[in-house]
Known about the structure:
six-stranded antiparallel sheet, 13 helices, about 675 residues, alpha+beta, six-stranded mixed sheet
Amino acid sequence: AAGASSPPSPFLPASCQGLWNKFMDPAWSNPLTLDINLDMTYWGVHTGHMPRAAEPLLSWISRALVKDGRRTARETYNIRGDRGRRETSSSPAHASSYFGDDGDDGEGEDAPWCAHHQSNAYGRATVTDGVWGVWALGGAWISRQAWESYVFWGDAEALRLRDYDMLKGAARFVQEYLFSDLEAYPEGWLLTGPSQSPENAYKLPIIGNGGSDTNHGSNESHAVFTHTGEGGGDELTIGICTSPLVDNEIIRELFHNTIMATKVLRRMKEDKALKAGHAKEGNRRLDEEEKEEEEEEKRFLSSLQNTLSHLPPRKVSKRTPGGVLMEWLEDYEECCPGFRHQSPIYGLFPANLYNPLTEEEEVGEGGGDGGHEQLLQQQLLSRGAERKTVKEFWVASAARALIKRRLDNGGGSTGWSAAWLANAFARLFDGDSAAEMLARIVGRYAGDNLFNHDNAWNSSVFQADGNFGGGAAIAEMLLQSQVRNEIYLLPALPSSWPSGSVSGLRARGGYSVSIRWESGGVNAATLTKTHNVVWPSSSLEGGYDTGDESSLKVFFWLSHQSKDGGSSNDDDHERESHGRSQKNCSAAVGVYLVEGGDIDDVAYGEGKQRAGKHETFQKGKWLSVKGTKLRGMCYVTIDRHTHPKAGDHTDNIESSGSITDQVNVLQRYQLLFHHHM
């Protein structure tokens, strides 16, 4: 466990080598690296039912990294949280619009803070390690762990007392860090910079040759902060840039998490006031201070939403073949097609900014500034009111194309890089490809003791994140819960795992989950609601409304998902699987809810109907994303308003300290699946 790799201190998280470092001068100084490695180390702690393992990380962030990060924000960037309103309604020149001219001095608990790509036990937040350190969103990235901890366990007190300030402070830094360049980008986009797409680089002509590799302005503006790499002749290899895709994805996730956390704490305040008798007919009587506080919150949330609307959009590269996501703001020529970092797919994993489900057979490749607009018209599978717009759903295909290009050119070249790809393939519901990455971790990047080694150096360099990231991928292949009010059972089960079982995994929203499967399809699952988690929408529509929490959609698969998805959409298409022939999409399924609620509806593909305690439903249209047909995918909707049977008490509640005290009602749902071939 990640917690076991930490020193015996409540304040130090796991480093690259953890407790197993034996050197006085270890590789990379045994750092806490914020542009992937530290976050990866903790990807699996909550799904794996180890909440205490996350405490050293969160304590270190709040006690050390945030503290030095506030100083870094002030002294390196002159960002204090006191910048006045500097925007117009059409094109903000600066994002810090919520703070008035008499804002605070930046010394409060939620003062702006930042960190760069590498830290240490003392919480160093400053620029370090050459050009790769010129990247100010390391703090914004690692602060995602604060929301992850809450959304699994519902500890609103920890969110209020410690974790919210790190989220809000990181968001406040970003608000002031962003700028606009209307001459170069008249669209009014808000930009980061100087920045870089972590540790990657692109090519530009050498200054003086008269060439330019950008659509906006001369190459000289990009070459001011350059380092020369392997590019020879008339080329430079350059890392420094403006607004790479990863920056925008980090900001999107950070702002969404901050909006949701703010709603949770407002709901908490409202509930306490109601219990204390400060309400009449459901309406609070606010004193002037409380009213001012609430208005400030609303201004803050509105400013976040406004900033989100001015971030540069995702694009598909015209220069790079294959329909890949464009890594940089400009369509540069990449220097390393098989680069180990997968930063452009941050929105797919570890974040959840887009989802690969569509109704179309293929999403297509799109093309740069204009071609992808047609893709935005793809129709989606309707899964309730809480749904992203159609604009988000072409992106998963472009992310998959980028992954393919990386692998075709030698990507996944370290254990941790392969672990990142395994998790990404799981999010794309591609179990066989995820299993290939796991096999690579064990077969290529593991020693005799299965410790992960970084092949970028030599076989003696141990990196714990590859092990932890691989373990997280296994859990992600069996269970996903990143979409609000939705749980996916066996979303990326590989054909090499035909039968098995797992118990004790955790899903966001406060659930403990056990699953049993045979012949590649789920047979039974038990979902136990053990913790109350208020999980609001990140939308500002409806004000502080935390949204409908009355139903839970449980998605499940009836058969293995092929990596290539096959070449036919024929329902009678046959394939060999573990020595016997199966007909895909030809099975009817009986779903039995044994206890704890009602099945509200069932769906297979686009078919949907009302249901009761038991329902059998038939095949429907394929659900697919380019390269991956989601064969046999169904869902049931469970009405969570119905309480479980009498006598189903808290003996099933998993102990997790004070969080357990928040549980009012244990809700257990047992689903049995009967396959009719």
